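Hi R.,

Here's the chain you asked about this morning:
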Amino acid sequence: MNTSLKMTPKLAVAFAALGLCLGACLKTEKFPVEPHIMMKEFKQFGDSTSLVISFTDGDGDIGLGQNDVNPPFDTASIYYFNLFCDMSRRQNNSWVPVTQLPYYYRVPSITPTGQNKALNGDIAVALKPFPLPPVLLGDTVRFNVKLVDRALHQSNTVTTEAIRLH
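And here is the predicted structure, written out as tokens:
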């Protein structure tokens, strides 16, 4: 019995050291509270396309829930949407916005549970129908993409490469 009492402080020190080691191994990622995006992929499939962006967000407030319909997320607000894909068409060596039907989306809420809210991942969107009038087959287009979080922080804007429609 005397031996077990002497081992108790040693076990406590060992468990404390183990806890510190494990805590150091489980580093939490830190990102700015503003979303940051990078273009990952753009593919054409006949009458639709696939756009994939990578993102990070430090406070995890990406996406909108079904109940997020009060201002500023109501249907009368631009912030009803949180992913904006604006198309431009090349005309006479200049990029001209195509504004008839913009590609705007509501990314669903993906806020993680727990203490660390930092997020990173990919968002994939099917742009459909594609292309929009008055864009025609053989035209060259590109997209400017931006993400907005629930605190209305805007991400950087990324631009696809020039895309020849086929």
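One quick note: Helices lie at 2-25.

Cheers,
M.
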